Amino acid sequence: MKNLETKGAINIRNETVGTMEVIVDGNRAMQLQKLLRDRDIPFEVTVTDINGLARPRSPNERIIDWQDFYPLNTINSFMDSLETVYPSTCTVSVIGHTVEGRPIKMLKISNSDARNTGVWLDGTIHAREWISASVVTYIADYIARNFDKLPGSITNKDWYMVPVVNPDGYNYSFTTDRMWRKNRARIGNAVCGVDLNRNFGHNWGRNGFEYSSMDPNHNNYRGHEPFSEPETAAVKDLLLYSGVPFKIFLTFHAYSEVISFPWCYTAEPCENYVDLLEGGTTIAKAIYETNGRMYKVGNFKDLMYYACGTSIDWSYGTAHIPYTYLIELRSKEHKFLLPREEILDCCKEVLNGVKALAEYVDKKKCANCTLFAKKLR
Questions:
Q1: pTM of the model
Q2: How far is Cα of residue 293 from the mean position of the Cα atoms in its chain?
Q3: 197-223 burial, b if ≥16 CB within 10 A, otherwise e?
Q4: Contact, 139 vs 162, CB < 8 A?
Q5: In terms of CB atoms within 10 Å, which end of the chain has fewer, N or C?
Q6: Catalytically annotated residue among 231, 257, 328, 349
């Protein structure tokens, strides 16, 4: 399906048995995608708004309005548009490619000050958790558009944002199976997929099935070895080898309304438990003051369950990023199927939480971070 601005609202061409290519007017594209999803008809968006990308966009024009969930190509086009409109602060790069060859795109927002520390934000490591991509894109849009007016706690950081860590799975959840969780790795002749949040190297595979699965058909299948998947390897390489002193790592999930931190694999408290608890409480307070939503705060194992090979255990325990959080977004009521009417509220409350965390980290000045890193090494 191609989303192009044409004279007719919908044009059909290249029709064959079982498939057809549809060219859709830009104003009707999302309507048709919803129609197809509601009827369980598989589709794939192959080109998004070619005419729109070819012309300059005004700073007030948005590809995404957070009134709906958007396919992968629209999210990628959104990041490209920020780079086009704000070239002095926004840079889009490809940090790797998926098992099916799709690019994993990252947006960096920075004033290029060499003294800046790094902040990492990612979403949809689990394909079906669409709201996480919405939150990351919303935060990116806010920072890019308002950068010159934002406080030093934002502008003294380099922001690295990957709205879709799992592009293959995300696309598959849009076109075929809404509840798909893993990537699209092949095991033999079958696409079984790997749970990317069990594929990171810190305590990977520890303690068997209670923590992660060796069964390729299980939703928590961890892969055959740490970082076996190109998606997790891309995250690892960027965080370890970019030379950026990352101080904050935020990975967004759905749907438990929880702000959690390491450890996931053990009930033992992490090294700077108190700092992480205080930082998480700062996020929760800002969320509550925005919309009255109450998020629980604590280490992952206490609030959720045991897990090993997770990105937050690795980013904290191996990459030594001191303020590491896994934030479970809305909603406990609707689970993965968050109503579109709640997208914008969720994005706004989490943005305020992230802003509050950035200020908190600056105030702490990470006085114990050097000691923390030495202890972990």
A1: 0.83
A2: 21
A3: bbbbbbbbbbeeeebbbeebeeebbbb
A4: no
A5: C
A6: 328
298 Ramachandran zone, left/alpha/beta (phi>0; psi -120 to 50): left
Choose between 61 and 294: higher pLDDT: 294
- For 339-375, how does the pLDDT look when each residue is reduced to its tens digit (9 = 90+)? 999 999 999 999 999 999 999 999 987 555 555 555 5
CA distance 143 to 358: 13
* pLDDT tens, position by position, 230-285: 999 999 999 999 999 999 999 999 999 999 999 999 989 999 999 999 999 999 99
CA distance 235 to 219: 21
Tokens of 295: 């998020």
pLDDT digits (tens, 9 = 90+) for 17-69: 566 777 776 556 667 776 776 676 776 665 544 444 334 445 556 789 999 99
N-to-C CA span, the chain: 51
How far, in Å, CA of 353 to CA of 357, rounded? 6
Dump strand ranges (E) for the chain. 2-3, 10-16, 19-24, 47-48, 90-97, 103-109, 117-122, 157-162, 186-187, 190-191, 246-254, 258-261, 296-299, 323-329
Dist CA 279 CA 283 (whole Å): 6
Rounded Cα gap, residues 195 and 200, in angstroms = 10
Per-residue confidence (pLDDT) for residue 208, from 0 to 100:
62
- The domain limits of the chain are 1-55, 73-376
Let me know if 349 is a catalytic residue. no
CB 331 within 8 A of CB 255: yes
What letter does residue 372 receive in the DSSP assignment? H
Task: Quote the CATH superfamily of domain 73-376.
Answer: Zn peptidases (3.40.630.10)
Q: What is the mean pLDDT of residues 172-182?
A: 96
Quote the radius of gyration of the chain (alpha carbons, Å). Answer: 20
Residue of higher predicted confidence among 142 and 209: 142
Residues 321-326, mean pLDDT to the nearest whole number: 97
Task: Please state the φ and ψ torsions of residue 215, each to the nearest 5 degrees.
Answer: -90, 115
